[in-house]
Amino acid sequence: MDHSHRSPSPRRELGVRRLERLARALALAVAVVTALPGQARAELPGDWQPPGFHVRGREILDRLGEPVLLRGVNKMNVWMDRDGSESFPEIRRTGANIVRIVWVMNGGDWIPTAADLDRVIANALANQLIPMVELHDATGQWNRLQALVDYWKRADILAVIEKYEHVLLVNIGNEVGDASVTADRFLAGYRSAVTQLRDAGIETPLVIDAPDWGKNLGILTQTASALLEHDPQHNLIFSAHLYWPRRFGADAAFIRTHLQAAADAGYALVIGEFSRYGAYAGGASICSPNGETDYAAILAECDRLAIGWYAWEWGPGNTGGGDPLCEAMDMTSDGTFAGLKEGWAMEVAWTSPYGIQATSVTPRSMLEDGDPDPRLCGDDLAGVACRLGLLTEAGFCAGGDLGVTLETEVELRVARARRLVQRALEAGDENTQSLLAQRAVRQLRRAVVALRDAGEGEDPSACVLTLVDDLSELRATLRGLAG
Q1: Predicted structure pTM score
Q2: Which among 175, 281, 334, 348 counts the fewest CB atoms within 10 Å?
Q3: From the CB of residue 304, how many other CB atoms can be counted at a distance below 10 Å?
Q4: CB neighbours (10 Å) of residue 32?
Q5: Is the distance from CB of 454 to CB of 468 less than 8 angstroms?
Q6: Do 272 and 220 meet the contact criterion of CB atoms below 8 Å apart?
Q7: Where does 266-351 show beta strands of DSSP type E?
Q8: pLDDT tens digits, residue range 203-221?
Q9: Phi, psi of 396 (to 5 degrees)
Q10: Is 141 exposed, middle or buried (0-12, 13-18, 19+ CB in 10 A)?
Q11: What's the pLDDT score for residue 39?
């Protein structure tokens, strides 16, 4: 895609949601050893060992070999919040496990460097979001596919990809090609692209968008098998953008039929973009009622078929293309979790039984203690931010150990500490870093004091004792970093 709020559900509902998410994780684990009927299951070629994410049939597996169901949003970082430091913590609060980072080779007034790319990927990881980077320069333009490939082959960009290959997805290009691109042209073009990128040394999954501005799922289904066979690593993910017009026949039955056909073909598919709006509207604005999609059916069918997805788009900024109605495609009014809009955005992020909060599970490879990769949760400021994120994911002993009031206070203190640490990471001088780290230390101290005061005269649960220890350890680490 080119370019009165109600608070989310009460915290007492989150314990149930977390149990549902754990159940889904178990179901996905079972799916590793149980193929769908008719599903093609390509074996890993030769002695090649994937450094990170890889596909097996329809499944996307992480570096531990565990299946991951992708649930997240798109974020136009290249135009707003270029390093993700403001938006990624807010996106993470939905429970999302991935973010599709909108990037460009040349933004006109800004030409991103390899260091800029490194920074936005690192900030995604600091918030436990799997980064998928896409290039937006060739949207709808088939003749620019080679330019995208040349960008990914640049030595400085290859260095960034290699640095993060254990967690990165490379989306070659956004919606490359219009409706004139045939299956034969698509197959030939991406065969060449895959060959060049593998020869350049890229070992991440390569994500390939459908032609016709991302909408032609049929061509993906027609060509996926041949492209997978062509890839020496058999490690491709295919992405469709479901801007299918409800007004012109793309109802729930249409969506079910086409997604089922893709699933039956046995390749790894994600929905790289979808929204309530954005479909062909017969000459009207794509963000008018004529441009609506059946987004609820998309959510339900993706849940039924275990297909990953990214909603378009976190916002704000969708009026940048000149259509004021497209503000309706902004999921938030101001880029914050608190600014989630009523309607489709709130449903997708929070209230739908098929939405992010209910179905997203963060891979263990992104969360587990003692992760072998030092880039995830080290002992520096970035590591403290990462560990604070893990505490947030754990839920602060949700389910009665703390009670709603105390749990809310602890969550608030930890959130404040995390924001202060993030600001310290962005600070340009040591004095500012030290002052911000000291403020974060005070927030953690207040959380520990509140927990200890509440536990006086009682026998605290093991979870509460562990939480106190974790917060105290983080406070000590931060105090040492503050100097």
Answers
A1: 0.72
A2: 334
A3: 13
A4: 14
A5: no
A6: no
A7: 269-273, 308-311
A8: 999 999 999 999 999 999 9
A9: 55, 45
A10: middle
A11: 45
